[in-house]
Specification:
CATH class of chain A: Alpha Beta
Radius of gyration of chain A: 19 Å
Keywords (chains A, B): Heme biosynthesis, Oxidoreductase, Porphyrin biosynthesis
Protein name (chains A, B): coproporphyrinogen oxidase
EC number (chains A, B): 1.3.3.3
Pathway (chains A, B): Porphyrin-containing compound metabolism; protoporphyrin-IX biosynthesis; protoporphyrinogen-IX from coproporphyrinogen-III (O2 route): step 1/1
InterPro entries (chains A, B): Coprogen_oxidase_aer, Coprogen_oxidase_aer_sf
Oligomer: homodimer
CATH architecture of chain A: 3-Layer(aba) Sandwich
Number of helices of chain A: 8
Chain lengths: 319, 319
């Protein structure tokens, strides 16, 4: 069971984390602060996009999403796990329901506990000591206009007797546009190449292939979108290079999504295109509930289904 | 991969089944014919309800579901697995998109093959010989009016070196009504009691509790509806009594659903009630994709995701 209370956007996300018996070193602090900062940047940028373009979009978009107040803005709530001796933590859940950004779901969290028995062999360093500490962010954007792609970004630091970063981002357009796909992948390639040039862990070909492999619906034999990056077990033994890469992927995702979204803000769409978008969102819902291993693990251990499922589409159809 | 072709409702559902190396005895024939007949009864009764009440509902309902032709009616398609030496089969998929019955999904199938290794220990009789033959029906009804509950019925005969029936039915109202819940459970209790009285396998208390246990969303700690019946491994060594019970549950479900639906046909509903219904359908989608073991198995072995997922709600919301 979770206690939910509403706080302000400028709440205590960067407050000292609960430890769960872990020694919180400066790197863990730094990662936690960064994910909180990135979440606030996402709220600021996407909130500004909605405020500006949503006002122009007028009441038509509003009609389509009566849950949205005319001014848009994120609704922010904090949740906390009842703290046991060995597990606890919590997070901040922010949801924007807009005229242009139909639904944005953002979750920034720090949790700790022990991996269940069946996960201990699979998680690096957990066979020796099942305790983990993790901090991360997950961001999913479902725009109203079907010409703007749905997009997803998430990243996390996991600490056991080892420590590593994981993360990724991808575009899931209902109506794919080659120019958007190229813009997105060019930006991600650039981030990876810059990292590699500096001796860091960026590897576009590998992380792109990994993304194609992970974000795939086996039961429909189809990818969930046009891809992006996915990485896990990222620990090159140079923390600074790893952390820089993780940060660059996050900021690049935000910037590139905004570039792509602004291209299509004024593009008209038909009721039929909107329906195709909702059927496509049915596929995204299938992926999340059938195939997303992070969601599976979250539902089993998190205790907050609304936080784990914050990226679910606002509306989906199975006609 | 599946070949899909459109056939008439009055197609060859009762034609001699493919055998997959099984000797098809008269009982297997009888079960297959019964599920086909029940499917046709469902089409006839629900089609008539839609034709009659849908015409009265007028264009408002139609606007809400532009996929529906004004006259309603089931769209029927047959699918077939490419026949290997040891696996094959197929089914008939019927979908009604109406003004009153927003979406009815019906699947009648006969499939055969070999259980994958990890299922052989779990399926009765499969350790000795992994081959199976199965015939069954699945029916899901999602009405437009949120005062009429969504409802589900399915049943099947599975034959390995043993043979048994499984099945169940339940109501999932967005806005539960105690009178509907009582009507539904009273009818199911009557079927079970009549069966028990004749020495058959009906056991209302056990099958109701089993249903409550199975149709439950652990991640939200909530049932998916107001329950019904669930049974599996039904083989009391008196085929005739088992088969009679299975048939009675099917006809009772159809009749009782219609009784409940007709109570609320003219009941007005608000946009807010409709939105609550769509959020509730998000929960049903979560159950189907996260928790429904039949769906999991079907997606892994069936080869036809549209048939396995025919019960998905027409529209779902995660606001």
């Amino acid at each position: 069971m979770t206690d939910t209370l509403t706080t302000e956007t400028t709440g205590d996300r960067a407050a000292p984390p609960a430890t769960g018996g872990h020694r919180i070193d400066p790197k863990m602090h730094a990662a936690r602060s960064w994910f909180a900062e990135l979440g606030q940047r996402a709220e600021a940028r996407l909130g500004a996009l909605e405020a500006q373009a949503g006002a122009a979009a007028g009441p038509e978009g509003l009609d389509a999403n009566p849950e949205s107040p005319p001014t848009g803005g994120f609704q922010v709530s904090a949740w906390e796990r009842p703290r046991g001796a060995r597990s606890g933590g919590g997070g901040t859940l922010s949801v924007l329901r807009g005229r242009v950004l139909e639904k944005v779901g953002l979750h920034v969290y720090t949790v700790f506990g022990e991996f269940p028995t069946d996960l201990r062999d699979k998680m690096p360093g957990a066979a020796r000591d099942p305790r983990f500490w993790s901090t991360g962010i997950s961001l999913t954007i479902h725009p109203m206009n079907p010409h703007i792609p749905s997009a997803h970004y998430s990243s996390r630091l996991i600490v056991t007797s080892r420590g590593w970063f994981g993360g990724g981002c991808d575009l899931s357009p209902a109506l794919p546009r080659i120019d958007d796909t190229m813009t997105f992948h060019a930006a991600l390639r650039e981030v990876c190449d810059q990292s590699a040039l500096a001796g860091g862990p960026g590897d576009y070909d590998r992380f792109k292939a990994w993304c194609d492999d992970v974000f795939f619906l086996p039961h429909r034999n189809t990818p969930r979108g046009v891809g992006g990056l996915f990485f896990d077990d990222l620990n090159s033994r140079d923390w600074s290079l790893d952390f820089t890469f993780v940060k660059e992927v996050g900021t690049t995702f935000l910037k590139t999504f905004e570039t792509i979204a602004r291209r299509h803000l004024d593009e008209p769409f038909t009721a039929e295109e909107r329906r195709r978008q909702q059927v496509h969102r049915g596929r995204l819902a299938e992926f999340t509930l059938l195939n997303d291993r992070g969601v599976m693990a979250g539902l089993k251990t998190h205790g907050n289904p609304d936080a784990v499922l914050v990226g679910m589409p606002p509306e989906a159809r199975w006609p």
